[in-house]
Description:
Its cofactor is Mg(2+). By secondary structure, the chain is of the alpha/beta class.
Amino acid sequence: xxxxxxxxxxxxxxxxxxxxxxxxxDLPFFDTDEEIIKSENRPISxxxxxxxxxxxxxxxxxxxxxxxxxxxxxxTGGGIIxxxxxxxxxxxxxxTFFLYCSPDKLFERLKDxxxxxxLSGDKRKEIESRLEVRLPLYKEAxxxxxxxxxxxxxxxxxITDLLTKNEKF
Length: 169
Ligand SMILES: Nc1ncnc2c1ncn2[C@@H]1O[C@H](COP(=O)(O)OP(=O)(O)OP(=O)(O)O)[C@@H](O)[C@H]1O
Ligand SMILES: O=C(O)C1=C[C@@H](O)[C@@H](O)[C@H](O)C1
Ligand SMILES: [Mg+2]
């Protein structure tokens, strides 16, 4: 099976859902953010503070390209789709699932979070404005799932249902 890539905004549940999906399908799980943290040996907030976003984006592209493209679940960082090369790489090598989540729900989930450097100002505004810019890019995915009112288990089930119907599976 081609890789399954989970894409979506910060807090949409890519890491949470990817972990559960991998358990359910008994497949290895990778997360591009975790790959970067491991190879840089420092947290994402520190990478942004010390080397800036552009450096992080390069590390992110490298991490994506270093992962297996068969029989894996890959959760990505929220901004991975900003790079056109990353979008076409995921399309070519796998099946992309966009986990949509409404700005209100995102805010609810992220209001106390301090690990995401791009949300360090007015969180609600940051979520709304960045989501608006990114939506068309996320929507290039093979599948779009509105997770706003779904539990973690329900989202995992939606993905497995779509996979069984999908010819790439
Ligand atoms: N129904 C739900 N689906 C997914 N996550 C949920 C749900 N309800 C609450 N959460 C919580 O929302 C948070 C989602 O965060 P998660 O780290 O999985 O997002 P992410 O998409 O990986 O973000 P990032 O792009 O920053 O890596 C978790 O703390 C999770 O427990
Ligand atoms: O949406 C984004 O741009 C980001 C999302 C996170 O997963 C991390 O990759 C980082 O905090 C940047
Ligand atoms: Mg994540």
